[in-house]
Amino acid sequence: MSLLNQLRQWRNNQARIEGVDTFRVLPNAALEALTGTLPKNKEEMLAIKGIKEAKYRKYGVTLLSIIKEHSHSSVIPVLQSADKHPAGIQKEKSWIPDQVGDDKNNLEVQLPNSLDDEKKQEEDQTLSVSQFLDGLNVELSGMASRVQGEVSSVDIRQRVIYFTIKDSQDESTLNCLIFRYQYDVSGVEIAQGDEVIVEGVPEIYKPSGRLSLKVGVIELFGEGALKKAYEALKARLEQAGMFASERKRPLPEFPERIALITSEQGAAIGDFTMNLGRQGFKVDFYPVSVEGKKAVFEIIKAIRYFDQHFKKYDVLVIVRGGGSLESLQAFNNEALVREIAQSKIPTLLGVGHEKDVTLAALVADMMVSTPTATAKQLRLHFDEARQLLRHFEVQLPTLFREMLADVGNVLARESEALLGYLHDFREIVATLRQDLTERLFLIRAAIEQKVELLRQGKKSLENGFGAILERVTERILHVGERLEQYDPKQVLKLGYSLVRKGTRVVKNISDMRIGDILDIQLSHGKMNAKVEEIFDAPVSS
Amino acid sequence: MPKVNLSDSLKKVQEIIHWFDNQEEVDVEKGLEKIKEGTVLIKESRTRLKEIENEFEVVKKELEKE
User: What does pLDDT average to in each consecutive run of 10 residues of chain A (541 residues)?
Assistant: First the structure.
């Protein structure tokens, strides 16, 4: 096998493993350049257009090893080689894309002599059937095609689905096969009579020599078929509880890290970013195809990438502008729907649609109808929060002022009550005072009355006493007069004498003794007399 | 400054407002504390809600470089 075919075979296998287009592994021009320059080390390989550091890190060692192996084997006669190419090797060049046409000429100029020899030798080869078919298969591997036709038979087996499609014009038939995984990812259940578009690489199955298209993707063609498939899958997923509200996770109120999956092209990305506003979002954008054969694979890959870093993200957003059922096929794909359902990050889908909501949107944690609505949904709580804060900024001081006003009212009420009490107290005091005044007045009146009484009493007393005194005085005077009358002096003046014996007045003759010396007092003067005789007879008056 | 949790902050402010709405006995001291707390929360939330440009990064290109 020529080095170019060997490299091409390796490239095609690698693309299949990675699930990407062959040119993403290495473009034809790079393969041509590799066979032309036969690099022996990193520097020489990096000099080739289309191979940079990243590609070298990924494929460099393998490529150098293939080239090295081929260089060694090229010294062995080609006839003994296990891989032989058909005599028509020159035709292989006609399948090289036009854009490398110029390089092709250069390549032939630059081909080392050994390769020229090899080519001549190959032209002279007689190949075995197996070698011939191997060669054909290598060439066919570069003929990936997209073919439309009607399914005329289907044979579904455990690992592979065999089917044929026929041309509606001339009944031409093409055998097809698809591996179970790819069939499942395609999300289509084909049946006889379905109009489909298949995409794949032709290959001859050596035991039967039968050419089949190894299909990678099947798409239903026509609105009716799509609608039927859509309804069937929707019913099945619904029955499996995939759309149940219990499955839905709430989206964070204030998402910050957004994992975004959409196309770099088209209006969706613009509508989305324009309507996000300035919220300080950190958006990690994974560009994908959102329509056509690659969309499902790329979107699934993107979801898986974000899932690997799920802790970094608050929400996984997938957006796409509106479209027909056909253009939105990727979003009605079962594999993609299940991938979204399994995402570790809460999902928000904004996929436009004309009539039927896509199944991907139905399975998402939240769906809105457009990329613009998606952006608005993400910023919704930020806008609400701003509004709420404006409201709080007014309400909070107002509430406090109201509280203070309440305090004021309470104080006013309490002071009013106090004033009431004070008023009552004053009234009581006034009443008491009046009462007291009245009582005092009464007391005073009573006192005055008593004083009056006393005065009167005094007066009476004084009057009585005066009278008494007068009477007493009068009596005294009278007594005095009488005393004067009884005054011995007065009596003496009348001629009577007062006889004393010693100190005692002699009243009775019996007290007399003869010889007694008597003191006789006269009105004027005294005299002593001696009793000489006693006469015991009353004195006649 | 620690990262503001807007949901929590707004919830707390709402609780403060609820507290004011449901006060039966007026407690000015407590009210003043709540006002201070609410003001801080509002200020922090305002800072977080300042309009800041979004950051965009294309991750796939990063992947391709790897």
Answer: 83 76 82 87 87 85 87 52 39 36 38 53 74 87 86 92 91 92 81 88 92 89 79 91 93 93 90 90 94 85 94 96 83 91 96 82 94 93 88 87 84 87 86 82 81 80 76 76 73 83 87 88 88 76 50
Q: Using the Cα atoms of residue A312, residue A307, residue A199 and residue A206 in order, give the sign of their dihedral.
A: positive
Burial (CB count within 10 angstroms: exposed 0-12, middle 13-18, buried 19+), residue A226:
buried
Q: Same domain for A87 and A162?
A: no
| H/E run at residue A162 | strand A160-166
Full residue range of the structural domain in which residue A204 is found: 144-221
Give the predicted TM-score (pTM) of the model: 0.54
Which positions in chain B touch A393 (Cβ < 8 Å)? Answer: 42
Q: Total structural domains in chain A?
A: 4
User: Residue A403: which H helix or E strand, with range?
Assistant: helix A371-486
In chain B, residues with a C-beta closer than 8 Å to the C-beta of A404 are 28
A54 CB near a chain B CB, below 8 Å? Answer: yes
- A256 shares a domain with A154: no
Pairing status of strand A210-220 against strand A282-287: unpaired
Q: Are strands A498-501 and A517-521 parallel, antiparallel or unpaired?
A: antiparallel
Whether residue A131 sits in one domain with residue A38 = yes
DSSP state letter for A529 = E
Q: Which residue has the tokens 């079962």?
A: A334
What is the number of other CB atoms lying within 10 angstroms of the CB of residue A241? 9
Beta strands in A193-234 (DSSP E): 195-205, 210-220
B49–A403 CB contact, under 8 Å: no
Please state, in angstroms and rounded to a whole number, the distance separating the CA atoms of residues A108 and A106.
Answer: 5
ipTM over the 0.85 cut-off: no
Whether A284 and A208 map to the same domain: the answer is no
Encoded tokens for A352: 């436009």
Do A7 and A120 lie in one domain? The reply is yes
Q: For residue A368, what are the β-bridge partners?
A: A350
Pairing of strands A195-205, A210-220: antiparallel
